[in-house]
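To whoever picks this up:

The parser on our side crashed when reading a file containing two proteins. I've narrowed it down to the boundary between the first structure block and the second sequence. Both blocks are reproduced below exactly, byte for byte. First block:
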Amino acid sequence: MGRLLLILAIVIAVVWLLRRALAGPRKQASGESPGAAGGDLVSCAHCGVNLPKTEARSAGGRYYCSEEHWRAGPREG
């Protein structure tokens, strides 16, 4: 009976470890928001959409979501 419980405990531990490994990385428990890892968000000067600063194009201290909006410039009004 003791061996059966030991084998059962080992099987449960292996299954738990495999599921945990296959689940991928989880959020850190440091309390950071999910967007904090991607950097600061900026707003497109043309359309106003929010996007990570690392993905934005910048010109003249303004940020744009695409090359088309960068060429068009900021929206007036």
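<<boundary where parser fails>>
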Amino acid sequence: MFEKFEPPPEDPIIQLIGIIRNDPRPEKIDMGVGVFMNDHGQTPVLSVVRKAEELLHAQQTTKAYVGVAGNETFNSEIIRLAFGDSADMQRTRGIQTPGGCGALRMLSDMLYRVAPDRKVWVTDPTWGNHYPIFRGSGFEVDSYPYLDWNTRTVDIDRMMSGLSTLGQGDIVVFHACCHNPSGAELSPDDWDEIARLASQNGFFPFFDMAYQGFGDSLQSDAYSIRKMAREVEAMVVASSCSKNFGLYRERTGCAMLVGESAATADVARAQLLNTARSSYSMPPDHGAALVAMILADPQLRHEWEEELRTMRERILGLRSRMSLALRETSGTPDWDFIADHRGMFSLLVLDKQQVERLRTDHAVYCVAGGRINIAGLKNADEIQRFADALVAVTR
């Protein structure tokens, strides 16, 4: 049986983790792996999460299943966090999933049940796992214009031109905020136009929201979803708590949908639950229980928002200092776009040789194409060493 298998292509990010781990150079800089790190190079457990864990330990009386839908307090709190007052809650539903990837896959599988002939469109570029997730459900996947590869900003004219050709046979995947891998952001005015086009042409919006609170604020990072929810009859959102709660290994996500009516929303949720039941049966409890506790308690929520603000300000500060260091080192404004990007990532648009030289000559690691995790830098010394290395390989 197994001898018929061919080795699958290795995930480049997983491969990179191993290469970095085996590099003995103490000065190595890891800007590849997509996790938030503090000034000490650690991905910390938030203090508010530790408090919630203590409370959960004291209060929890069973480890029985939580049910296919997961923690319903978590579901309702995440819906409010994402949609605010913008969506008609009579038509909005959600279920807990194993991480944001689980939410993406469950929503994709559910949609394929009712619309297998539709085509899925993702941004060019997009997060590498989007293609295998949607193709794994059975969809044909293609891309629409997003990044201007020269300026590293959103090519809004080409994007709108591409979206204008899409209609009721299309599912369009959007990054709600903090675009991965580019870091290039759409403005509120841009989202207004996109929402108007979705309503006019009838393509189906599918939002991936992995970084709410890592861009400008919890509210502004959700503008895209809230605007779209006011304009279209139906849409879906996959949300992750990995970054903004630091719950990477707890696999905490939510699959949300807005239906044309309360009745259709109920039926769609039932289909989503059926999809989940045939996949992983029941979601894990721990992470969702912590998030539910934090969001439902005013004091814990305040503490979480403050810790989230600290993480966000660290990233923004690193962006500003990196941009300045590159301007001073290169003598050009060519890298100023880094300060304007949002979230953990920026796409530098480097070729294979430049990425390899960063690794071999300077012990600086990034993903192929030059996607860097800004939060991988710890201090001013590393910022300058990175600036020196990048200028050296691109000069």
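After patching the parser it read the second block fine. The CA atoms of residues 14 and 170 lie 32 Å apart. The first strand starts at residue 29 and ends at 30.
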